[in-house]
Amino acid sequence: MKDQGDWGLDIGEQIIQRTWDGQVDKLSGILHGIQLLRDNDQKIIKGGNKICFELQNFLFKQVDHIYMQKMISGEAFREFFQSKITLEIAASNMIHTTAYSDYLIFKNLACDYPFTKMMKLQELRNQDPNYVQIEKVVQQLISIFKDDDDVLLKNIWRLTSFFLLDFIQTHYGLENFEPDKGVKFEEKMSLMSSSFQLEEELNNIYWYIKEEEINGRKLP
């Protein structure tokens, strides 16, 4: 059944929704795959669980974002959350989010974050049996990102891999996972990041102009 919010879309928006709707199952697969790396007996989020926890929350935010931007339909959004595994992951992450965020705020005030980050990853490398699997996931994301085939579905996966790699780079540093990045990887990441910044600025300008037109004000 079509959601009320799905009506009134132009042809371009309908094409975008149909394309992205077909990718929601793959995003769900990534979410569930990350869950397999988590230690469910661990009461405190740390080590490998911390990385999995943050990546899963990031994916939830991405799905919410593309739904709010009308890039996926309400039906696809519902189906994503109808899975029992997805609901269990969401519930578990919601329970931990507030307490864990408060813990990080106070802990980071008392630490040199870059040094602490490096030490934590070194401990994780030595102690967590899932670390090798996480390294493999990072390498797979890099391979997807470096695939230059100009095919719509591959372009979508390249975009998804960029967001995940950028998140990992910001919070942990890709170099700590010792991936084989190959040539021009950093340049390609930088170019894509710059393009998103430019797109955001142009979008802000567009909506500013639209608001001025709606309010009947003439631009200088």
List keywords for this structure.
single chain, 220 residues, mainly alpha
Describe the structure in your own words:
- The structure is a single chain.
- This protein has helices spanning 11-21, 24-35, 47-68, 74-82, 84-109, 113-127, 131-146, 152-171, 185-214.
- It has one domain.
- With 220 residues, it is mainly alpha-helical.
- Helix 2 runs antiparallel to helix 3 (47-68) and helix 7 packs across helix 8 (152-171).
Number of helices: 9
Mean pLDDT: 68
Q: What class, by secondary structure content?
A: mainly alpha
Evaluate the radius of gyration. Answer: 20 Å
State the end-to-end distance: 47 Å
- Estimate percent helicity: over 70%
Extended strand count:
0
The description of the largest β-sheet is:
none
Proportion of β residues?
A: under 5%
Outline type: globular
The number of domains is: 1
N-to-C order of helices and strands:
HHHHHHHHH
Indicate the low-confidence ranges by residue numbers: 1-5, 98-119
Summarize the structure.
The protein has nine helices and no strands.
Topology, please?
Blueprint: H1 11-21, H2 24-35, H3 47-68, H4 74-82, H5 84-109, H6 113-127, H7 131-146, H8 152-171, H9 185-214
